[in-house]
Amino acid sequence: MEESTTLNFTALEDQDQKDIRIFGCIGFAMEMMNLKPSFARKLNQGLSPIHIAVKRGHKEMVLRFLEIDKDLARVKGKKGKIPLQFLSKAGNPDGLVDRFLEVCPESIRNVTTTNRTALHIAAERNRLDVS
User: Fold this and answer.
1) Residues 80-111: pLDDT tens digits?
2) How far apart are CA 35 and CA 59, in angstroms?
3) In whole angstroms, what is the distance from residue 125 CA to residue 5 CA?
4) Backbone angles phi, psi at 73, to 5 degrees
5) What value does the mean pLDDT of the chain take?
6) Where do the coiled-coil regions begin and end (predicted)?
7) Which of 46, 52, 76, 78 is closest to 65 using CA atoms?
8) What's the CA gap between 6 and 16, in Å, rounded?
């Protein structure tokens, strides 16, 4: 059974209010990772905090997660997807793909449960900004 953590909820910060509260949430999330590093890998509905931050467009939080622990780039969520594969599906508006590949170049080889890499997903979605 998956267990929600405070770090998961911090990454879920409401999109409409992110400009107002995101910096406080980032500080809180970083402190939680410092006190309890295992929280960064816990899944909530198949997603880790970095998956959620990527999905919600919290670029600064994603960058801080990677700064503290580059191995978070390879945490597998539902269907075996890593955060880079979420970006490949959604596109690369914030240039995060470059950062993921910089901190963890081998993540490009990770495959989902359906045997798809980030490049497969980008090509299927015609996301030329990713590939």
Assistant:
1) 999 999 899 888 878 899 999 999 999 999 99
2) 22
3) 32
4) -65, -20
5) 83
6) none
7) 52
8) 20
Q: What is the pLDDT of residue 111?
A: 97
Domain boundaries, the chain: 6-124
CA 16 to each of CA 12, 22, 23, 34, 100: distance values in angstroms, whole numbers, following the listed order: 11, 10, 14, 27, 26
Report residue 51: phi and psi, to 5°: -60, -45
Q: What are phi and psi of 47, to 5 degrees?
A: -130, 140
Given 3-state DSSP classes, what are the helix, strand and coil percentages for the chain, each rounded to the nearest 5? Answer: 65, 0, 35
Four-residue CA torsion sign, 55, 105, 3, 19: negative
User: Torsion over CA of 87, 96, 19 and 41, rounded to 10 degrees?
Assistant: 70
pLDDT for residue 58: 87
Task: Write down the pLDDT at residue 10.
Answer: 55
Q: Which CATH superfamily is domain 6-124 in?
A: Ankyrin repeat-containing domain (1.25.40.20)
The CA distances from residue 128 to 8, 32, 131, in Å, are: 30, 36, 5
Q: What is the DSSP string of 93-112?
A: TTSHHHHHHHH-GGGGG---
